[in-house]
Amino acid sequence: MKIRIEANGHRFIIPLPIKVALNGVTIRIIASCSKKYSNVPLKEEYLKVLRKELINAKRSFRRLVLIDVSSSDGFKVKITL
Amino acid sequence: MANTLGSRIGEFRKKKGITQDQLAEYIGVSSQAVSKWENDLSCPDITLLPQLADYFNVTVDELLRGEKSQVVQVVSEGERKDFNKILLKVFVHSEQGDIVKVNLPLGLVKVALEIGMQLPQISCNDALKNIDLQAILQMAENGVIGKIVEVKSANGDNVEVVIE
User: Fold this and answer.
1) Which residues in chain B (81-110) have CB-CB distances under 8 A to chain A?
2) Per-block average pLDDT, block size 10, for chain B (164 residues)?
3) What is the 3-state secondary structure (H, E, C) of chain B?
4) What pTM does this model have?
5) Which of B17, B29, B90, B135 is deepest in the core (most CB within 10 A)?
6) How far is CA B150 from the centre of its chain?
């Protein structure tokens, strides 16, 4: 997965391998953080299913642009599978 | 989508998993003719286009223009794609010039819904908060494909939801 952010003439590309971003440790961290700070509590088991589904989706749709947001002020965010 | 008629024929043929010989045999031309079409050295006869379109399960318009048909249709159970290979596309163009495009595999949408996520949380856009994903999933499961929602508001916002 790749996250590309463009703002004020600057461009960042963050490569984010799914298996690295969502491993056993990070899943626990995300689950505990979402419980404390988010209004959507993400349970560990849900995140594991999400990781599995993301990997399956990557196999079926290689380099699919999941989200492409571009605002009128030039801010752009693109998430590619 | 490929740019020329020949490349589209080649693309549809490969998607169907057949050889040039098999396509030639079905259409009733030589395999050299199919090869010439795909390499843009010649074009299929106009009378063969409906036959080709039917064979690839697309419209003649889609074959010629390379644009997906946006007409809503219900696909019969035998011809339906695997649920995980269907895409949900949401396109929002706001009056201020903000553009949001969301392409989500339905398998992923299903899991996200089970978790309790909604589109505004994924796309950070409140224009999508009233989209009932559960109903869209149900429609997709029943074989509905095409542009299922198109809203143009008075202040110029445009929202489209397509199952592909």
Assistant:
1) 84-85, 87, 96-105, 107-108
2) 80 87 89 90 89 83 73 75 82 84 86 70 56 79 82 81 84
3) CCCCHHHHHHHHHHHHCCCHHHHHHHHCCCHHHHHHHHCCCCCCCHHHHHHHHHHHCCCHHHHHHCCCCCCCEECCHHHCCCHHHCEEEEEEECCCCCEEEEEEEHHHHHHHHHHCCCHHHHHCCHHHCCCCHHHHHHHHHCCEEEEEEEEECCCCCEEEEEEC
4) 0.64
5) B90
6) 16
